[in-house]
Amino acid sequence: MWYFDSPRVVFGEGALSHLKEIEGRRAFIVSDHNVAELGFVEAAQDHLAKAGMESKAFLEVEPDPSLRTVIGGARAMSDYEPDWVVGLGGGSCMDAAKAMWVLYERPDLKPEAINPVETLGLRKKARLIAIPTTAGTGAEVTWMIVLTDTEDDRKLGLGSRENLADVAIVDPEMSAGMPPRLTADTGLDALTHAIEGYASSWGNDFSDGLCLKAAELVFRYLPQAYADGNDSEAREKMANAATLAGLGFGNSMAGLAHSMAHSLGGVFHTPHGRAVGLFLPYTIEYAAREKPQRYAEMARHLGLPNGSEPEGASSLVGALRGLLERLEHPGSLKAAGIERDSLRERMEKLVENAANEATTVVHPRIASMDELERLFFCAHEGREVDF
Ligand SMILES: [Zn+2]
Q: What is the pTM (predicted TM-score) of this model?
């Protein structure tokens, strides 16, 4: 037995105006100053006002939101007593909104206690709307929450199926004009979700179709969105791809590139999309040495050479490396500015944290501590994985 969960997804140009139709009293918007400067917070508040709702915005979410921010936001939320919570921004804002909402509903809980086994009993006070302003994380349709424990330099993977948003609003106009680097990073996050969600040992018939379509859209439209931020077709397709990939991997699981990226991000603060895009070819190479089948299927779907399963997997890696090059994405940790000495110094922690990620055990091939260390070094030097 398995489950497929999804919010109601409102998508396409102008989807933000769906906020006019929300029925409620008072909305608490969780966002950040960048998103506010782009005018999106005000736009959301205008629509909510037309729905006859009051609203208040909390703009203090930082990249890689910390436990402290989430606890502070939940307190502000409790004072305001909203019946709708709106997460508006990148994955950080949406994840912070999910966690704050849980703590608002359940003030007896600590954020660390939000896990899939706990019955939370949410929706007694409010419901959740998630609105992405980037095209990548898929956080609008996933129940996972990533927070950072700043005292211990590590990312915490939290969340429960109950904290999935009620409504996801996917409006490509929100990501129009995103700078190229952010477009590439977030788009590669979507691609990593699609490929890892497909290859995951928790992959299933429902997630498969979503992951295949999402990967196809990213390969086709990400270079266009990167080259011309105002290409509205590319923006729309990337916005849809990110949500499709979110639904795909959210209903299966991500894989080892995510484990390594979370671990790296906790220590070196490398942006999530930059890190997963960088690790993805290495983690595919590693898995495909024993289990190439799922990657070969994806290569076949993408029309890449796939005479045999190993050939299919290596065409997928080749296509991926080609894409990274077109996006001027760092192909190694060295190219991403991480010195070998600092990597070596923090290696024990990097390996331990990566090994403890849930995504490590659902990767098609499960890496030992020793192999994880070797993978970090391969990714540092840009070397092919040959073990
Ligand atoms: Zn991701």
A: 0.96
